[in-house]
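Subject: sequence -> structure tokens, single chain

Hey, anyone have a minute? Need the predicted structure for the following. Not urgent.
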Amino acid sequence: MSADHIESADDALITLRHGARRVILAPHIGGAIAAFFDAHADGERHWLRPATPDALAARNPLGMASFPLAPYCNRIRDARFTFDGALVDLSGDGNLFPHALHGNAWRLPWRVEALSEASARLTLSHAPSMEAAHHWPFAYEAAQDIALDGTSLTVTMSLRNLSDRRMPFGIGHHPYFPRTANTRVHARVSSMWHTTPDPLPTHIAPHPSVDALASPEGMSADAFDLDNNFAGWTRTASIAWPDEHRAVTLDADAPFDFMVIYAPAAFPSLLCVEPVSNVADWVNLDVDHTLKGGGVLEPGDATSVAFRLTPRTD
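Reply:
Had a minute. Here:
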């Protein structure tokens, strides 16, 4: 996609610049990143899969380069869970998936609160009475501080509970990386959550992908059919294209203690390596917190967490 800055009141794309590096933001499409690339005289070198004109026209967050996950991430079984003795029913939130998915922030427009040549602050305020079609029964505000420097793209996510009661939360980001026959993923994890076909987690156990990820050459993106959460992540991963002599390193802060890899065999062009604070359906899993993650914000409390994407070329 082009790095042109489109001027429009309702659907402006914002271009951040630092040297040859570019980030294009689509605040109106779920506060998403639409592209992250280096601009060269002979073309653009993309570090994330860029949004297509069709995805932008359709305002489809799933077609963006990356989008925020808040106030929860991953799936919630049957869109229901019990918290502090009360049933939370998300089945009427307008989500077209069989289970609640990724919160509502990715399906709502964000506001540009601050902007400079190489950074932007995007914000979102949610009140349950205002957004019945994107139901979440807790008021909250979220922010993304997105900044370029000479080395990395840094995204700092913040979430504050505006309700008068405790709020469960999860937070993450959903980057799509270019996937080719030679793409490799390297990361150190301790185990993988196995799933039902939905997919929802059933149990945590070894899997051949754990050793493949840790191998010196990394795991081929085509090696396994994955849509899985990984536990015991050291909060760093690299996605490499050895034949193109380049790679990008993803590193994250706590509580991004879990990693999702989405590398479906049925869609060989898709690859996601996602920093997240919890595994899917964490609110319904009866396991130790260290295995599932997730958190709780008291009224008025906030949390903040960052991740970075650092490109490199050989």
